Amino acid sequence: MKRIFKYRVPLTSLDINDAFEVVMVRDAEILTVQVQDGRPNMWAIIDDDQPQDQVRRFNVRGTGHAFTGTEGRYIGTFQVAEGMLVFHLFEVPP
Asked: Of 27, 53, 63, 78, which is most buried with the most CB atoms under 10 A?
């Protein structure tokens, strides 16, 4: 059975980690990143018949921060701190 599942984006105070890993259901299709209840989350389509054993890597870059162009595939943009901080999420290729 397929369903939509939520994965948290790590957040410490108002500082976003520049890079992080999430263990996800294998071959999950990431739909978007948005803020819910003040915390950034990713939503993905998952298949319950697949194991939850795939480590996926992500980079977060803030507006105005250094950008090399090697951050990965763009997922989306989200805002925290009532829109005062704007971040952009990228998935690192395997």
From this structure: 78
The tokens describing 37, both together, are 């209840």
- Residue 75: how many other CB atoms lie within 10 Å: 20
Q: Tens of pLDDT along 36-91?
A: 998 999 999 999 999 999 999 999 999 988 889 999 999 999 998 888 999 999 99
CA angle 38, 35, 11 (to 5 degrees): 65
Closest by Cα among 55, 59, 53, 54 to 73? 59
